Structures are given as C-alpha cells and as structure tokens.
Amino acid sequence: MRTRHGISYLDEGNGPVALFVHGAGTGSGLWANVIAALREERRCVALDLPVHGQSEVREDLSLPALAEVIEEFCADLGLDRVDLVANDSGGAIAQVFAVRHPERLRTLTLTNCDVHDNLPPEPFRPTVELAAQGGLAPLTATLLDRPSLLVQGAFAASYERIDDPEGLVERFVRPIFGDPERGRAFERFLVGLRAEHLVAIERELAELAVPTLVVWGTGDPFFELHWAGWLRDTIPGVRKVVEIEGGRLFFVDERAGELVPHLREHFASGLAASATGGGGRP
C-alpha cells in the first residue's frame, strides 16, 4: 500500500493502466482478486477514496468533489489514459468523472452502481438517514469487535456468502469506524452522495462516446438489472451489457474470476481503438 498526497492506493504490475474505484464502506482491497489476475499484463491502480482505507478526510465529499479527487490522483501519478473500472457509489463518481474528463479514459467499465435518481437506493436509505442523524458511526463502532453481527447488517445483502466476517471488518470497516472523527466524516460522505448530481449529467452521459462495458450482478437488491439497461440506452459508448447470474453488489470481489475475462476483452478493444484513432485520443 502506498500513500501520496493523502490518498492511499495499491499499485501493482506493468503495462497500460487500469484504475479501480470502490464505493462507500469498502476500499481498494475490494479489487484485490481482480488485480491478482491482471497484474501480469496491466499496471493495476486502486485508490482508497477519502475517509476509506488510509486516505485522509476531506471537507467536500460530494460526488463532483470526489470526481475531482480522481482527476487530481491521475494527474499526480501521471496517469494519462486509463481503463476505469468502478463499483457501487464509485460507479456514480466514475460517471461524473467520465463526463468531465473523457480525455483521461481509454475505456470505462461500470459494475453494479448508483444510476440516475437511484441514489441512495431504497434499501440503503435507512442507513443514510441514520448517518444524517449522527447515529451510524457510534453504532458501528460498538460492533467492531463483534464481526459476525456487524457484517450481517453491513454486508449480508452485498455478498452471496461471507466466510470471513472478521477479515471483512478489518479490511473495510475498522479503518473507517475505528476512529470517531473518521466515522463522523463517513457519515458526511454518505449524506453527500446525492441523486441530483447524477441527474444533472444525464445529457452529458448521452454524449459519452468512451467505449463502455456494463457488467451487472442480477442478484443485487440495491441496483437492479434494469439500471444496467438504463446505462446501455443512455450512454452511446456502451458496447456490451454482461449479466453475472445471481451476483450481488460485491461480485467484483467474490466472483472476480467471472469479471476478469470481460475486462480483458474490453481493455484489448480499447487499445485497438486507440491505435486506430477510434474511441478517443490515441
């Protein structure tokens, strides 16, 4: 794990850069299994968003501000063009980033994520409301040493099975809620993710020509399959929609082996398009 200007990140392998963005409440480790499969052929970079992992807290945690964190990160590391892959609220951030900085993208891949006005998704709304009331951080902190109980609330709907509750808590939850100040900042993070910022970019998404892959777990109660169709019908750059049968929100972690072949194919087509002058700036 490395840290640069307050952002912690994984950086493994060599080759064209693939940049991975997680969502609320996880971290760069969400992509560990994908990176393990791709690092022999790609430089795989996965950052921890502010408040997550070892990344610092920032004052502005809105979607537009988080999209600019991605831009600053790319500029700081000299990542000229990337294959951007995102999940959950990281997908919302990626959509804002893509319409603001399409020149940075060789390709875009969106997995189960917030789309248009589905932010927060209805099943997650009580959690956001609890955060707005200042109750999420202290409640979660009291459960850090009871991982089996904690993951039943935080992750049970997002994974098909959880074999290592303590590992999930140590990877994702304790870095946020182990410190009261960071816990309060995470509450601000959740409350700052607002649908209006996604609705506002619908017109720009309708003009986004970046080659885009949509990979969607069909068993996700937060982001149902019809949202993958919305992306396909809205973004002209969408080349394919792939369904992961029964996959939950974090299938990118537990079923990484099913995602990786589609990423390889998509990344290769993006390189080919760049070499021939298609799909953006070579």
Counting DSSP H or I runs of 4 or more residues, the number of helices is 13
Global structural class: alpha/beta
**Secondary structure: number of strands:** 8
- CATH C-level label of the domain at 2-118 and 196-275: Alpha Beta
The proportion of strand residues reads 15-25%
Order of helices and strands: EEEHEHEHEHHHHHHHEHEHH
CATH superfamily of the domain at 2-118 and 196-275: Alpha/Beta hydrolase fold, catalytic domain
Taking pLDDT < 50 over at least 5 consecutive residues as the criterion, the unreliable ranges are none
Q: In what order do the strands lie side by side in the largest sheet?
A: 1-2-4-3-5-6-7-8
The rounded Rg comes to 17 Å
> How far is it from the N-terminal to the C-terminal residue, by CA?
31 Å
How is the main sheet built?
A: 8 strands, mixed
Q: What's the architecture of the domain at 2-118 and 196-275 in CATH terms?
A: 3-Layer(aba) Sandwich
Cα shape:
globular
Give the averaged pLDDT, no decimals: 96
Helix content: 40-55%
GO molecular function: hydrolase activity
Domain AB hydrolase-1: 19-254
Keywords: Hydrolase
Organism: Nonomuraea recticatena
Explain what the structure shows.
It contains 13 helices and eight strands. Helix 1 crosses helix 13 (256-275) and helix 5 (136-142) crosses helix 8 (180-192). Helices cover 44% and strands 17% of the residues. It has helices at 32-38, 63-77, 89-100, 125-132, 136-142, 147-154, 165-177, 180-192, 195-199, 202-205, 226-234, 251-254, 256-275, and strands at 2-4, 7-12, 17-21, 43-47, 82-88, 105-113, 212-217, 238-244. The protein is an alpha/beta fold and 282 residues long. It has an eight-stranded mixed beta sheet, sandwiched between helices. The protein has a domain at 2-118 and 196-275: Rossmann fold. The longest helix is centred in the C-terminal third of the chain and has 20 residues, at 256-275. The two termini are 31 Å apart. Keywords: Hydrolase. InterPro entries: AB_hydrolase_1, AB_hydrolase_fold, AB_hydrolase_sf. It comes from Nonomuraea recticatena.
